[in-house]
Each structure stands twice: as C-alpha cells, then as structure tokens.
Amino acid sequence: MLPPADKKIIGQPHRLSSNALLPLATECPVTKARACDLTLPHCTVNTPVFMPVGTQGTMKGITVDQLDELGCQICLGNTYHLGMRPGPELIEKANGLHGFMNWKRNLLTDSGGFQMVSLVELSEVTEEGVKFKSPYDGKEILLSPEQSIAIQNSLGSDIMMQLDDVVSSTVSGPRVEEAMWRSIRWLDRCIGANKNPDRQNLFAIIQGGLSAELRKTCLDEMTKRDVPGFAIGGLSGGEEKDDFWRMVTLSTDHLPRQKPRYLMGVGYAVDLVVCVALGCDMFDCVFPTRTARFGSALVPWGSLTITKKQFAKDPQPIDPDCQCPTCLRHSRAYLHALFKSDTAAMHHITIHNISYQLTLMRSVRQSIIDGCFPDFVRTFMKRMFPSPEQYPSWAVDALATVSITLE
Ligand SMILES: [Zn+2]
Q1: What is the DSSP letter of 13?
Q2: What span, in angstroms and rounded, lies between the C-alpha atoms of 140 and 143?
C-alpha cells in the first residue's frame, strides 16, 4: 500500500548503531517461542521477560531493593509523571532515573503519550505532537516526538519508546490509518532526536489497529528503520481476544528475528504464555500490582482473594510452592487479618504477585531452553483451569496455529 500523497514519510530511514543486540539463546522447534539474552547497559535481560511497572520512580507497594531481590532485570519508569514532577532537570542532576530511584538494573521508559491520551481528558493530537493541559497547573503543554525523546534522554533509560499516535483498539475507520502513518513519521523524528543512540535504545511501536492490512503496512515501513527493537502497540485495550491474538501473530511473523519484540500492556498469565508461543519476548502490565491492592494474589490455579472469609483461619501461605518472601513468612490468615487494618498487606501481596510473574517467565524460558515448551503450556493450562471445557477458545485457537493442541 502506498502512503496517501499528504501522508508521505518525512526524510529517509535512519541507521542506528543499535546496541540492544539479541543473541537468540534457543528457539522452540515447534512454536514461535524464543529464549534470548538481551544485552542492555545495566545487565543482560533473559527473555521472555515480564517488566513490572513503576510510577513516579517508585514501584507501588514494593521497594527497589525488594525488586532486585526478586531477580527483576528490567522495570518500567513512567515518563508522563516524571516529566511533570519532579521534572527532567532534577532527575538528570540525580544521574538520571537510575540514580533518582537508586535502581541498578535496566529501565524502560514510555513516551508519555499514552498516559496523556488515557489520563488527560483535554488532549489533542496534531502533526506537531500531543497538546494537553497540565493536571498540575492547567498550563497548555505540547509533547512532541522531540520533547518526548529529550525527556527520556534526561531520564537515561536503557530502552526508550517512540511517541506514537495512540488510538483505542476499539476505534475503526480513517482515524486508525491516520494514526498509523503519523506514528511512522513520529518514529523518524524520534530517531533524529535521540542524543544517546549508543546507550539508549529506541523502540518503534507498531500500530494499525485491528486491520491486518494497516498492521502489515506499518510493519513494512517501521522495519525499514534499523531501530534496536519493536513494540506491538495499540492492543490489549478492550478488543476481542480473537482480534488481539491474530494481530500479535501477524506482527511477529513480520518482525525481524534478531530484534526484541515487546507486547505492550499484557500481563494476565494465560495471555503471557500464549503470546510467548506466538513469538513475543517482553511484556508489561500494571495488572499484578493493581490487583494486589484489592487483595488478589496470583496463583498457578488463577487467583486467590485474601479478603474472603474462607482464609480467616487458613495457616497456609498464599501458594505453598512459592518461594517469595511473603509466602516464606506469612499465612493467608495473617494477610487476611492485616488487610483490614494496614496497607502492609498490599505490599506483601504485591511482592508475591511480582514474584509470581517473574517466576512464571523464568519457567517459560527454562522450558524453551530444555526443548519442552509445548508440554509446559499443556501443564500450565491444566493447572490454570479446572477442566479443558473452561479453556478460553481464543487461547486454544491461537495455540493450535503454532502446533500446540490442548486436549
Ligand atoms: Zn509467594
């Protein structure tokens, strides 16, 4: 598909000295799953990986030391909040976000755009950038691709995300195509604005809504740019699961094998396992930390709501097989009682939930390396659902396309 005359790409694709090299440790011979070692400035990241989300430089309900102890190799910093308060200058003075947070592993920062479109009601997208009113002082602010990269350069993150034109996945029509072409043009502006291409890896974000044609066009254009990695964006926003997985697998079919693939906003255990099978390497989601604040603990058989009466006298830990600090020290009964009187219960459950996600991904990775990933998926599904009749049909269909049949 040719770009419409008024939507031509500005400038030529840029070449970057990409240092987010991706030695493929192992590829599953059956599915599209891969286990890779992603070389980033602060440490190697073993993929598939789940990246916990932080806000304002602190993880809600967990400290950076605790995150480190859980073996987290990369987490997310939030550009929108950090760019507003305390502001990029202050963070730059503190030796970037790593110094400000005192976090020694890798950081990924978002562009700030998504937060604006989703959090700030009065935002307007123009070719220049995203215009919005500051929720702090009401001033009009323009977040341009250049501005987003300048903030992320000040934060010093190991992976930066391009500013993209975000459209809800439930929107269809010409707006989706417009946003796709604009995201490509903004990618070029972001590449041009990056002051530290040697140590800050800029990822492109594939858009195109739920249209296979638009997604393919976006993939064709963006993969012409030699960026260090690619994110699959614009999904996980309330679309049908059938549309979701088809867009994911179409994207991984067209992304270069040697580059990391980041599926944005995905964090349910079943979604993680299925999307690894479809070829994704990196994931993030606020779900495990958010759900912890409501007393919901993630377990291999689903979730357990600690506030329920049935746990008031239960001496077991959340998950008897879990080795996290919460499960090693505390019973369900204790957490149940604590939840009523103290926010500490949320911290304990947050630690468990992050540990659950990280441990799940380490097991997924090990099974890929051991050559038994399809069996891992079958066992995982059996444990997660009481009976095969309860397997979500989208997951069964998606896995069937990569030769995993669930009985
Ligand atoms: Zn635990």
Answers
A1: P
A2: 10
The secondary element (H helix, E strand) that includes residue 66 is: helix 64-69
Query: Which position among 226, 284, 314, 370 bears the catalytic label?
Result: 284
Give residue-wise pLDDT tens across range 175-193: 999 999 999 999 999 999 9
Per residue in 124-148, is it b (16+ CB within 10 Å) or e — as a string? ebeeebbbbbeeeeeeebebbbbbb
Decide if 123 contacts 112 (C-beta within 8 A): no
pTM: 0.92
Query: Which residues, at least 6 apart from 9, have a Cβ–Cβ distance to it below 8 Å?
Result: 3, 181, 184, 185, 188, 221
> Is residue 54 part of an annotated ligand binding site?
no
The tens digit of pLDDT for each residue in 345-399 reads 999 999 999 999 999 999 999 999 999 999 999 999 999 999 999 999 999 999 9
Judge whether 284 counts as a catalytic residue.
yes
- To which residue do tokens 């997208």 refer? 125
